[in-house]
UniProtKB/TrEMBL annotation, chains A, B:
GO biological process: L-phenylalanine biosynthetic process
GO CC annotations, alphabetized: cytoplasm
Protein's UniProt name: prephenate dehydratase
Gene3D superfamilies in alphabetical order: 3.30.70.260, Periplasmic binding protein-like II
Occurrences of domain Prephenate dehydratase (ranges): 10-232
Cross-referenced InterPro entries: ACT-like_dom_sf, ACT_dom, Chor_mutase/pphenate_deHydtase, Preph_deHydtase
Amino acid sequence: MSASSPANIIIAYLGPPSSYTHQATVDSFRAPKYTLRDELSIRDVFDAVQSSSASFGVVPFENSSNGAVLHTLDLLIDREEAFPDIHICGEVFMDVQHCLLGYVSQSFSSDNKDLQSSGSSGSATPTSSIPFPKEPRSKPMTDLRHVKRIYSHPQAFGQCEAFLSTYLKGVERHEVSSTSKAATIVAEDRDKSGAEAAISSRLAADVHHLAVLAKGVQDVEDNTTRFLIIQRGPVCHDIQNLLPEKFQMTNGFRLKKKALIAFNIDHGTQGALANALLVFKKHSLNLTSINSRPSRIRPWHYIFLVEVEGEREFDDPDLLHLALQELDTVTEGNKWLGCWVDRFGVNAGQ
Amino acid sequence: MSASSPANIIIAYLGPPSSYTHQATVDSFRAPKYTLRDELSIRDVFDAVQSSSASFGVVPFENSSNGAVLHTLDLLIDREEAFPDIHICGEVFMDVQHCLLGYVSQSFSSDNKDLQSSGSSGSATPTSSIPFPKEPRSKPMTDLRHVKRIYSHPQAFGQCEAFLSTYLKGVERHEVSSTSKAATIVAEDRDKSGAEAAISSRLAADVHHLAVLAKGVQDVEDNTTRFLIIQRGPVCHDIQNLLPEKFQMTNGFRLKKKALIAFNIDHGTQGALANALLVFKKHSLNLTSINSRPSRIRPWHYIFLVEVEGEREFDDPDLLHLALQELDTVTEGNKWLGCWVDRFGVNAGQ
C-alpha cells in the first residue's frame, strides 16, 4: 500500500515515543486513518517527507519561553538543497508541562524537616545577579537531596530555571538530545540509587516506569510549543485532502493564514533589510516574527526567515504573486516555505 | 585597590581557563595592566560587571557558522532588570580551530588498513537526506575506533558535522557547558581507555595533558566567533580610558561604529516591525543583523535585537538622539545596549 493511500497515511514525527512532538502528533492525527512513525532526528523527519516515505512530518518549531528551534530553522533554510520540496502546511500548539522524573530515595523520603534546613526553602534565593528571582511554580513531592545529576534537553533546562535554582542548585546538568532520551537514561540507571533524574513529560514517566518527583516545574504557566506540519510540494489539494480537516487550506473562508518566507539580501546596500520588510507591509502581509541564521556562505551574512499573516492575500494567488515578484527585486534570493491556517489559541486536541 | 584603578583593571571572562573566550581575552587585555578572572557562566560575567567587581567583561556573542549565542542575547535583553547598567563597549573577533582531544589507543594506532576497511574512508557518506555531504576538512591523526563518547558544547558539535559524520558516525555525543569543560571531563577519564574524547581548543590539550587526535575538525575554514566587551554604564570616558586603545570610542575619526538596540512592538499593529526598522534607515543607520527572542510576558510576542552601523550618527549625540526619539514613537519600549568601534576584519591579537 502506498504512503499516500487514504487508509494508510504515514506521519513521521520527531521521536522517541513519549516526546512532546509525539503527543502533538497523536492529538492531531488519529488512528486508524493515520499511521505514526517516530524518527531519530528532525532531519530524519524532513528526509522521510522529501523522499515520500511519509505523507506528512511533525517537527517542533518554537517555544513560547525559549524561542525558535534553530535546527528546524536551518533545515527549512536548506542551505545544502537536500529538501527542495518541503513546505509547511499546518501548525499545532501544545501546552508543555515538564515533570522531574526519577526515583524516590528511601533514606530521605520521610525527612521533610531536613529538607527545609538544607536550604531548599521553596523560595528562590536572591543573589546580586538575580535580586528578584522568579518563584518556582511548584514544589517537589519528595526530598531531592539524593539527586546528583539531571538530564534533559537544553530547551527544557532553559524553561525550568526557577525550580532548578531553588531545589536543585548546583546539581550537575547533562544536556541530551530530547526530554524522552533523558527519561530513557534515568530509567537505565542500574542501581536505582536515585542519583539521576530527568526533566521530561508526564507520558515518559509511564513509559519508563519512573516516579514523578515534581510536576509542572517550568517557570511560566503558559509554556506552549508550536509544531509545524510539513508536506512534499507547495499547497497541493491532492495532499492537503489527506490532512485532518482543521489543517486544510480552504479558499474563501475568513480564516487567518500564515506563511513563512526565507530571503537573503545584499548586506552592503544601506537599508536593504528594511526595504525587503516594506514589501510585506505594502502588500498587507503583517510581519509577526523574524529570525536570522548565518548564511554559511560568507561570515556575518544572514538568511532571514519572516513569518507573515493575512487573509485576502493567501486566497488570491495573484495578490501573493505580486508581493513575491516585488520581493525578488529587493532581495538576492528568496524561498517560499509554505502557508497554513493560523491555529493560535486552538489546542492540539480540539 | 579598587577594581577601576589603572594598575589593577579586572576583566571577567567566561571560563574555565583555556576556553575560547579566555583566548580572546588574553589577546585583548595584556598583563600586567589587566588582571583576568574566569567566571563560571555568562550570567556571572554580567553580574561581575554590574556589581563593579570587574571593570569589563568578555562574553561570546555570535559564531559565523552557528549564529547568535541565545543566552547572551537573553542577558542583554534583561527581562528581569538584573543588569540595568550593562552596556557593550567593544567587540573581538577570533578564529576558532576545533581539535579532537583524547588518548591514543595503543591497540589500534598502527593499524591504518583496518581504519580504511571499517568505513572511515575519509569521505562523508551520501545519504538520501544529505546527497552531497560536506567533505571533512581534516583527517584524524590516529585510529578513532576506541572513541565511544564525545563531549563538547552544542555549538561546537554544530560546527563539526562533516568530520563527526565521517569519522565518528553514530558515536554517542554528550553536550556539556563549554568546550573546556569537555576537555576536563575527558582528562578525568581514570582508566585512560580512550573511550572518551572532546572537541575543544588546542590550548585545552596543553592545559589538560591530552593528545590531539585531529586538528581543524570544524566544517568551514572561516569559523570565527565574535565576543563582546561589556562595561557598567553607557559610553563613559572615565571607564573607556581603561580599555585598550583599539576599543576606545573616539569622536571625529572615520571609523565605522556599531550599536545594538532592543525593542518591542505592538504586534497587533500591521506593519509595526517594518515601521520600527524604517526609523534606522531614515537616520542612515544601516541594519546589519536582527534577532528575536520571546518577550516571556505574552506568548508569541517578541523582543527584537537589531545591530546597526554608521559613521556620523555615532559621533553626533544629537543625530542619535533624534533617531531614538523617533523609535520611541513606533515601539512599545526600547533599550540602548551600547555602541562600539567596528573590529570586523581585525583579529584579536592585532
